[in-house]
Amino acid sequence: MMIRDDRTSEPETGGARRRAILEIAARLFARKGYRGTSMRDIGEAAGVQGGSLYHHIRSKDALFVELHHAALDEAERRIAQAASQQLEPWARLEAACAALLEIQLDPDSLTMPMMNDFREVPATVRTALIERRDRFETRFRDLVANLPLPPELDRSIYRNLLLSQLNSAADWVRPGRLSPRDIAEQIARVFRHDISTG
Amino acid sequence: MMIRDDRTSEPETGGARRRAILEIAARLFARKGYRGTSMRDIGEAAGVQGGSLYHHIRSKDALFVELHHAALDEAERRIAQAASQQLEPWARLEAACAALLEIQLDPDSLTMPMMNDFREVPATVRTALIERRDRFETRFRDLVANLPLPPELDRSIYRNLLLSQLNSAADWVRPGRLSPRDIAEQIARVFRHDISTG
DNA sequence: CCTACCGATCGGTAGG
DNA sequence: CCTACCGATCGGTAGG
């Protein structure tokens, strides 16, 4: 997880301390969910009292939204980078899938894995999350638009199916058994349907 | 949601009252999740105080597990019934997918939609849920085993991909826009890969 | 089925 | 960054 550090500051003070706290919070949210992670949990992991965190953040809600946005920022970067290495449409799609899966399946990526359980989050937070996620998913629109799909496949549904497939992978993949690339390859094979060549 | 009524009793007393409470609780759990639904919420929806519910149930945990198991019991029945109407392997699979999707996408089915967020549930409950779900998913093993899949598709991964696809549909399908059958048809098209005919 | 309460926990704040 | 606390809410119980 890359987190911006606005202020110029000595190591382990100011912005650096804040960044460390954000990373700790991200790990906890990813593992235990929004409601399952208390401010006291975060404080304990950071070696301070829960109340002391409010020197660095405004509220639990704001913290979560900030982490979510930073996670999607980084995911977009990595996916764009991976796709740009490929020219052929299916290869581009598979590279993007592999990049997203690597993020979703890495237990230490601190990046995304919890970003799907929108229901356990307050309504105001949910609105912000969904808006950002919708923008993120737009990045897959061109990737899918360039595929030579047979006409009986609806591209909008196809894109949603692919994205939900990628996002739900963490729910069933047993860590260590299958690599993100293995899963990405199988997903690519299932989702590959050329209009001409079978 | 079908809930067993063990005792013979007059309408709206004993078992009937209990069943009504279970259905109310199932609806709330489905909409708000486990942690997002308090016993007081359930009591309010049932027209009683939260504490009064403990005359009918032992604990929130036990209530949730009971609802989960009843939901999977009914889902298994409906899926088996739908698949049995078809002979051809792909048709059987599509029928099973449509049956499961109808359950997952019906906001009033009181049946399953919340059964995926295992992370917000206590560990002891989670164990029971996962065990039951694994047994449920076994029902799809034969359906997949009978498909004439090309050898480069791993049947175990394929089955997991299909199930997670079906289970995550409720997260993105906007109710009313697409029918469960439409989604099932598109999923069937994406997942259909014959070994011989393209 | 109710009132009244328990111990625990939550997000957050005051005041230093 | 701490101590000490707030008001709210939680699952659950006692006693009727």
From TrEMBL, chains A, B:
The keyword Phosphoprotein does not apply. Gene3D superfamilies: Homeodomain-like, Tetracycline Repressor, domain 2. Keywords: DNA-binding, Repressor, Transcription, Transcription regulation. SUPFAM superfamilies: Homeodomain-like (SSF46689), Tetracyclin repressor-like, C-terminal domain (SSF48498). Residues 38-57 bind DNA. Signal peptide: none annotated. Pfam families: TetR_C_24, TetR_N. It comes from the Bacteria. InterPro entries: Homeodomain-like_sf (IPR009057), HTH-type_TetR-like_transc_reg (IPR050109), HTH_TetR (IPR001647), KstR2_TetR_C (IPR041490), Tet_transcr_reg_TetR-rel_C_sf (IPR036271). Residues 15-75 form the HTH tetR-type domain. PANTHER family: HTH-TYPE TRANSCRIPTIONAL REGULATOR RUTR, HTH-TYPE TRANSCRIPTIONAL REPRESSOR KSTR2. This is TetR/AcrR family transcriptional regulator. It comes from Sphingobium soli.
